[in-house]
Amino acid sequence: MRMPVFRFALLLPLLFGAATFANAQSSGEQGLDSRQCAAVRERVLQPGAPVNCQQLQVVRFPYVDFDGKRHEDGEIMVMAAVAPQVKAIFEELFKRRFPLAQARLMEHYQGNDDASMADNNTSAFNDRPITGGKAISLHAYGLAIDINPLQNPYVQRDAQGRLEYSPPAGQAFAQRTAERQGGSEQVVELFAQHGFLIWGGDWKKPIDYQHFQVSRKLAERMAKLPVAEARRVFEDSIVAYRSCRNAHGSQLKTRKACATAAG
After folding, report:
1. Listed residue (30, 9, 22) closest to 227, CA to CA
2. 3-state secondary structure the chain
3. Beta carbons within 10 angstroms of residue 231's beta carbon
4. Does pTM surpass 0.85?
5. How crowded is residue 196: how many other Cβ atoms within 10 Å of its Cβ?
6. What are 207's strand-pairing partners?
7. Angle at alpha carbon of residue 72, lines to 67 and 76, rounded to 5°
8. What b/e readout covers 122-142, taking b as 16+ CB neighbours within 10 angstroms?
9. Cβ neighbours of 73 (radius 10 Å)
10. Going by DSSP bridges, is the β-strand pair 154-157/207-208 parallel, antiparallel, or unpaired?
11. Average pLDDT in the 199-209 region?
């Protein structure tokens, strides 16, 4: 029997994900080595952080820049439990030739988020509070990823109701188009298929086009577990999301509903 086209399209990520899960099970690498731990403690990781060096991992990957040039030095630090899925995300971005300006660890910026954004740097782990608030950021868990901050700025209103952009040069990308090179709109479903179910571009205020994360509830749970158990919990959420999407279709409202249910 011929499978309906839309059903087949929704099943493709499930089939693709099976290999990722196999790789996750076979990957023995986790935690930072002593050199990496010393560097991150000196520049980024503060006392009382929700995760420690043993719970973090550096994912390395090739990428293409906005001129189509290949780079081999992409690095991003995340919770070790999600590293195989993050690796799969960036491998797929490379296959699609989705451009990244660069991807350097936050230690290169002394944990300064404004400096990283101004440099149009794709990043993840950074032990800091949320922008403009006191609550701890999901970046401090290694469970949030920001891509191409210039093309995908953080947008909020000031006390006078005027829009402010971070980085400021991101105002040039205020008008969103799905086809724009390096735009996050093109990869929302890719990130969701690999467990980063929440996109800041869906928020009303602030709007954070560069930002992908898991739910705070899931992050807090994973941070309390050994790496292997946290990985199983994370991948359970992925299975739930993919199953929901396959069952209920590809519309925007379905994506959001499935993300809420799975996270």
Report:
1. 30
2. CCCCHHHHHHHHHHHHHHHHHHHHHHCCCCCCCHHHHHHHHHHCCCCCCCCCHHHEEEEEEEEECCCCCEEEEEEEEEEHHHHHHHHHHHHHHHHHCCCCCCCCCHHHHCCCHHHHHHCCCCECCCCCECCCCCCECHHHHCCEEECCCCCCCEEEECCCCCEEEECHHHHHHCCCCCCCCCCHHHHHHHHHHCCCCEEHHHCCCCEECCEEECCHHHHHHHHCCCHHHHHHHHHHHHHHHHHHHHHHCCCHHHHHHHHHHHC
3. 24
4. yes
5. 27
6. 155
7. 100
8. bbbbbbbeebeeeebbbbbbb
9. 11
10. antiparallel
11. 95
Q: 150-176, pLDDT tens digit by residue?
A: 999 999 998 888 999 999 999 999 999
Q: Residue length, the chain?
A: 263
